[in-house]
Amino acid sequence: MSVDDIKNTLDRSKQCRCNDGPLNDSCDELITVQPVTRRQLRALAFHYVYALDRSDYQGSLEDVSRLFLDGFGLKPGDHTFALNIAQGVVENHVRYETVIQPLLEHWRFDRLGCCTRLILYMALWEFEQPDAVASIVINEAVELAKAFAERDAYRFVNGILDQVKLLYPHSMANDTELAVHASNGQESSSSSESESSEDAG
């Protein structure tokens, strides 16, 4: 794949359909000069994956990343997370298709929109990580779908991933553990506030 091919593909990625057409304001908010949040880095990963998918995974992630960052004038600093997601999809997209296909009731895989399919791939990569938290993975995929995928695709993404999480029980265990920690934190905070009030009295 030539540099010109990558540039042409990246031009198409900028036009990847959002809810009502080409990239809208909600999409632009995710592409900032210096992506720092995990949500922004996921959006960056989505653009890498989209460009590679449109070239049938013939390009180099390194080249796509460099050209994309230069093209948008981005300075992401440490974007290892985005690169890891994209590389995971590149290496496993064929296998991910076999995971998703049985979950599509009355729906053919080839009818999935490109952006929806790629967001599902990205979520599958996240689910496979040992520190995956099911609710976070699903919520972040839904937010990506709202920004980049076809109209109402976020509902479809939510439904499919709600089934996918059952294949990765560790992600649900992490979810429960996170909820317990959050609850304990709130109790500690309430206790501290109560003690402070008593001391003040």
Protein architecture, described:
The protein has 201 residues and is mainly alpha-helical. The chain has a single domain, classed as N-utilizing Substance Protein B Homolog, Chain A. Helices cover 70% and strands 0% of the residues. It contains 9 helices and no strands. Helix 1 packs across helix 4, helix 3 crosses helix 4 (61-72) and helix 6 packs parallel to helix 8 (153-164). The longest helix has 32 residues, at 169-200. It is globular.
Secondary structural class? mainly alpha
Number of DSSP E strands = 0
CATH domain class name? Mainly Alpha
Helix count equals: 9
Number of domains: 1
Please give the radius of gyration in angstroms.
19 Å
Helix content class: over 70%
As residue ranges, the low-confidence spans are 17-26, 187-201
- Note the main sheet: none
Write the CATH architecture name: Orthogonal Bundle
Given the C-alpha coordinates, what overall shape results? globular
Q: Strand share of the residues? A: under 5%
Nearest-integer average pLDDT: 81
End-to-end separation in angstroms reads 73 Å
Query: So, the CATH homologous superfamily?
Result: NusB-like
Named CATH topology: N-utilizing Substance Protein B Homolog, Chain A
Helices and strands, in order, run as HHHHHHHHH
